[in-house]
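Q: Hi! First time doing this. I have a protein sequence and I read that you can turn it into a structure. Is that right? Here it is:
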Amino acid sequence: MEENKAVGETPEEVSKSQRRREALEVKSLASRLITLNASRLAAVPLDEQLRAEIDRARSIRSNVARKRQLQYVAKLLRRNDLDPILDTLDSFDNEAKQLTARQHRVEAWRDLLIESGDAAVGALIELRRDADAQAIRQLLRNAQRETQKNKPPAAARSMFRLLRELDETEPLPPAKL
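A: Yes, that's right. Below is the predicted 3D structure, encoded as structure tokens:
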């Protein structure tokens, strides 16, 4: 005997809503590929036809034609394995997150140094023996003077650059006293 099944529905069938969601995801991926800069796009594993159609979509200025081309790129994407493309885009996102984390870490150290003064410099030098203590102390004094006189933070920016260079050689630890 047959179990209660909707007419024409098999266990492998996907609902219309699910197919639409998947199509919108692929269209969103196509849009993201079209907006990537050239160097990033070159790193994405695409076949030649798809790469050519993405380039064509970038050159189209008419909104209607561009939308049509976007739909065509999405159609071509549905024929390909999306996992390598998504993995590459995820690696781009991870690079951006790491860069943001590095920037926040350096900003936190700069702010801590300016607020706490020599105590924070001592803590930094103890953690990172390769840091130039004299340069950091000089920039710190200049930054504190600029803050007191309401001048533009040129020394604080210089300190940020110095700390960023330190962080690039080896990541700075979290800023704490």
